[in-house]
Amino acid sequence: ATPTAVMVATGKGATQGVLIKGGNALEKAHKVKTVVFDKTGTLTVGKPTVVSAVLFSNYSMEEFCTVATAAEANSEHPIAKSIVEHAKGFLNKFGSTEHVVEAKDFEVHTGAGVSGRVGDKMVLVGNKRLMREYNVQVGPEVEKFVSENEKLARTCVLVSIDGKVAGSFAVTDPVKPEAACVISYLHSMGISSIMVTGDNQKVGIDIDKVFAETDPMGKADRIKKLQMKGLTVTMVGDGINDSPALAAADVGMAIGAGTNVAIEAADIVLMKSNLEDVVTAIDLSRKTMSRIW
Ligand code: ADP
Ligand code: MG
């Protein structure tokens, strides 16, 4: 593309809230055959709410909520925020927040959850993968709760205390209203859509392929595998966990409302956080390369 065409496209993009960081992205996006979407915060609104909390142990709901709040208090993950909000809400109504202490040895396990010590208790809050990592048994009762909720496109966050699953929060995060339309519009442009997520495979939407329970490096590997097939790939993501994949993709697109790490790793930033702008960006590239300007 001519420097002028790139300048025009970059300018047009900017007025539409599509921030293009360089000519390279514009020269590649027109060839994209596959768009890989992250789930949480990308296809979904990214504002999860807790819809139920259950106990699998003898801890009271008050103790359970106290421990969960302490463990998640320093996590920036939207799921953590929803758990803290729910658990604090419970404590304010039916108990007290005076026993909520800060977790010690707090650690983030990207794409899996958090760990830390709360008082003298060793606490894990996260998915089954996190439990597996720490050799915490997930019994049939827990499995049943998880699979029933996953069928409803919910995510179950497990809380283990001293090596045993003490309870779980079921969380729901609605799909963005424009997501289905964007996927079908991409289809009409000859582009297939794939979801790659650290979460479970359920999402209330029709998409060509799903890869679930994938860690950050796994997401990047998915991109590389598609590229090895000769496909030009776009990755759309919002999280720290998406940044290796955003960097690996031919065209990385970050959700504007996402984390700074993702925004830095991307070639294009969708400032309005609206998925329609994935199409806008590809369209700008097609016009640039076919010298419409
Ligand atoms: P996605 O790839 O869909 O954006 P993430 O990789 O951010 O999702 O998270 C994957 C899963 O890891 C979540 O669905 C959740 O089960 C778990 N998880 C990650 N961080 C946390 C946290 N702070 N608290 C609880 N669960 C978490
Ligand atoms: Mg995400």
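^ adenosine-5'-diphosphate complex. The pocket of magnesium ion (ligand 2) is lined by residues 38, 40-42, 237-239, 242 (CB under 6 Å). The radius of gyration is 21 Å.
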